[in-house]
Amino acid sequence: MISSNDLRPGTCFRYDGQLWKVTEYQHVKPGKGPAFVRIKQLNLRTGAIVERTYRTGEKIEDIRVENREMQYLYRDGGNFVFMDNETYEQYSVNEDLVGGSAGFLLENTNATVMIHDNEILDVSPPTFVEVRVVRTDPGVRGDTAQGGSKPAIVESGATIQVPLFINEGDVIKVDTRDGRYIERAKG
């Protein structure tokens, strides 16, 4: 058991029979009345985000989760197949669990997989990935000064906004947390 005061972003716990992960944390001390903790918590099974308030010092059941590096191998219908880099065991993960990060998973790249009691709860691709642009409209000469953007489809299947000077075949660096273009890849 942990105290609500110990909750921080990334902390995982069990509440009302559900597994949760803290995404945002705020300790509030109003001028009148007792202090309390306001958090945004992510349901690790459904993906729902809930804002909840806990009394200061309230006891909460913590859970032990393990983050493992696994290699994404291939897609098999509605599942993604990962291999544990240490044990070489293969795990099939439903595409609903992978969610939005599926657009940034490239075959034979590593991802961080969160596991609790041999159940995969979350899959996170690397924070930054380098991907090749497979389809985008050509930029119009002279339009680069305005700082505009255009949609581009990358080799992993995701569609992101890129600057007008990016062309098909370019390799770009993308932030997987929000799908934002960072820069052209070096080399």
Distance between the termini: 50 Å
* CATH topology (level 3) name of the largest domain: SH3 type barrels
* CATH architectural type of the largest domain: Roll
Order of helices and strands: EEEEEEEEEHEEEEEEE
Beta-strand portion reads over 45%
Sheet with the most strands, sense and barrel status: 6 strands, antiparallel
In what order do the strands lie side by side in the largest sheet? Answer: 1-6-2-3-4-5
- Rg (CA only): 21 Å
Helix content: under 10%
CATH hierarchy, class of the largest domain? Mainly Beta
H/I helix tally: 1
Shape, per Cα inertia axes: flat
Tell me, rounded to a whole number, the average pLDDT: 86
Structural class: mainly beta
Write the layout of secondary structure elements.
Blueprint: E1 2-3, E2 12-15, E3 18-28, E4 36-43, E5 49-55, E6 59-62, E7 66-76, E8 79-84, E9 90-94, H1 95-98, E10 109-116, E11 119-124, E12 128-136, E13 149-154, E14 159-163, E15 171-175, E16 180-184
Antiparallel strand pairs: 1-6, 2-3, 2-6, 3-4, 4-5, 7-8, 7-10, 8-9, 10-11, 12-13, 12-15, 13-14, 15-16
